[in-house]
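Notes taken during the Thursday session

The instructor put the following on the board and asked us to keep it in front of us for the whole hour. The protein is nitrilase. We were told not to look anything up and to reason only from what is written here. First, the residues (346 in total):
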Amino acid sequence: MSSTKDMSTVQNATPFNGVAPSTTVRVTIVQSSTVYNDTPATIDKAEKYIVEAASKGAELVLFPEGFIGGYPRGFRFGLAVGVHNEEGRDEFRKYHASAIHVPGPEVARLADVARKNHVYLVMGAIEKEGYTLYCTVLFFSPQGQFLGKHRKLMPTSLERCIWGQGDGSTIPVYDTPIGKLGAAICWENRMPLYRTALYAKGIELYCAPTADGSKEWQSSMLHIAIEGGCFVLSACQFCQRKHFPDHPDYLFTDWYDDKEHDSIVSQGGSVIISPLGQVLAGPNFESEGLVTADIDLGDIARAKLYFDSVGHYSRPDVLHLTVNEYPRKSVTFVTKVEKAEDDSNK
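Then, after some discussion, the predicted structure tokens were revealed:
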């Protein structure tokens, strides 16, 4: 099905004769590898893919988890229980240097790229606040506006040694002309209460940037699409050993037995799935590239006729979720305000 740049705006018009129009949106996943230890080159690479996707009619472009800054697959940072070393500390210094401030110059550049190509952009990035890193998703509008971010709530396994935890203040769902847009990062997608929070916010374009390229991951994505009655876009990097810095201490789970530069380290598997459980594009386990589908937003209503997990198929009298959206700061400063002396007492 063809797509034009103003298609979503035109077809989101008021229903004619009481019949809602069927809105079609072209969405694209970029399945590619970070340029490690070189953030400017990574953004250059991202821009080339965004230009390509936009030239083919994409209105939404999604990148994998930690694309900017890099997902540190196989990195050990010299860590073991009760053990630290100088080499690991220096490895973290380089990783920290590749992370970005939010907001910051890299965010401004990405916003400009989204504007020039008139796309919604959802970008996985490693964010730094001081010397703490966060696995973050950044959202941009076609007008070049930085909409906001989501920080991963719970890093997985050894990720917890290098990334901080997000809080409830960054779990947005943005109401856009092409649908309600939000994200869950990697194994956050296994957290049923977090998924429920996104469903309650009305998510329709469920972005799932990940580092999990396993075949089992596909089952999770299919389940979420059906459970949430939403379109699921899962983006994973396709990486080969040659994409990573040389380091004898890296521990990869290769998909091939050989240790050559072309050995696959992260096999991708990016996929787009409809609310009806239909795989619309992907999964791609073969190479870097674009995964694109034309999605019919009418499928959301079609799916929710039978199941709406936070609507007609919920039982709030029995099961209820409370979400704390307050920012959680480790230090709060309360400044004493001196009361002005009353002139009448002089």
